[in-house]
Every structure is written in C-alpha cells, then in structure tokens.
C-alpha cells in the first residue's frame, strides 16, 4: 500500500501561505476582480467585452499556480519574471481601454457600466502589479550587472 503521510506541505497549505505573500495577494485579487468583471459583462446587453476578463483571469490563474507551486524555480527555460511583466502590462492596458469604452458608451446598461468601473479598478491593479514586477526586474538586473572583473 502507498504511504499516505505527506513529506511536504500539501497544496492547500501552499495556497494559504502563498496568498499571504504580496505577490500571491495581488494575483488572487486579479483573479477575483476578473471574475467579478466577467459576471458584470455576462449580464449586460453586450457580453463581448468579457473576452479580456476571461483571458486575464486564466493567465493570472496559470501564473498563480506556477508561482504557488514554485515551478518557476524548476522550469528555468522561461524567464518567468519577464513573462509576468508582459502579462500584467498588457492586462493593464487592455483593461483600461475596454473599461473606458464600456463606461463612456454604456448609457442605459448598468451592468456594462459596473463592469467598466470594475475594469478600471482592475487596470489599476494590473498596473500596480506591473510596477512591482518592474522593480524586481530592475533589482535583479543591478545585481547581475555588477562587474566581477578586477582589472583596472
């Protein structure tokens, strides 16, 4: 029979501990606000705006799982920091564009306006995530750019 004793932390414990980190909290907030936006857009007359929210929620869930399970340290073929920077930056721009369109042109459709307002909040959240990732990229580049050459 298989040994049922866990040798390390299980998935639920990793989830609980990762959500308490700043990056885990931001990713969890991105997933939650994207779900709220999907619900708002799905109940509006024009449901086509939900594509951005669906894509960004799926990408945030993938990166949440990768960072939570620490797969970014195992699969070093991909530069996960830069990939996350592009994900968050593109998400911020797309959310801001689609949300402004929904808020400006959503007269008479309360769910569309609500989705647009939540989308603006999501755009700011994704922009903050981009900023924090940029600071990480900047600090890692400064550490690796230091010269180890002793020639004068």
Helix percent band: over 70%
Characterize the overall form: globular
Beta-strand share of residues:
under 5%
Quaternary structure: single chain
Q: Write down the secondary-structure element order.
A: HHHHH
Low-confidence sequence ranges = none
User: What integer is the average pLDDT?
Assistant: 87
> What is the count of helical runs?
5
How many β-strand runs? Answer: 0
Estimated radius of gyration: 19 Å
Q: How would you characterize the largest beta sheet?
A: none
Summary, kept brief:
The chain has 152 residues and is mostly helical.
Structural key phrases:
152 residues; 5 helices; globular; mainly alpha; single chain
Describe this structure in words.
The chain has about 150 residues and is an all-alpha fold. The chain has 5 helices and no strands. The N and C termini lie far apart (about 65 Å).
Describe the protein's topology.
Blueprint: H1 11-19, H2 22-42, H3 50-68, H4 80-105, H5 110-144
Helix pairs in contact: 2-3, 2-5, 3-4, 4-5
């Amino acid at each position: 029979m298989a040994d049922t004793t866990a040798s390390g932390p299980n998935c639920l414990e990793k989830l609980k501990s990762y959500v308490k980190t700043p990056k885990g909290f931001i990713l969890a907030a991105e997933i939650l606000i994207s779900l709220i936006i999907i619900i708002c857009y799905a109940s509006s007359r024009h449901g086509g705006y939900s594509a951005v929210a669906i894509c960004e929620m799926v990408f945030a869930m993938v990166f949440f799982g990768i960072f939570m399970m620490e797969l970014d340290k195992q699969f070093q073929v991909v530069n996960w920091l830069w990939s996350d920077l592009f994900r968050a930056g593109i998400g911020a721009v797309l959310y801001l564009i689609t949300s402004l369109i929904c808020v400006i042109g959503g007269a008479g459709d309360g769910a569309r306006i609500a989705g647009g307002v939540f989308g603006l909040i999501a755009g700011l959240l994704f922009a903050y995530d981009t900023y924090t990732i940029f600071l990480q990229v900047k600090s890692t580049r400064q550490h690796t750019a230091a010269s180890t050459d002793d020639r004068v």
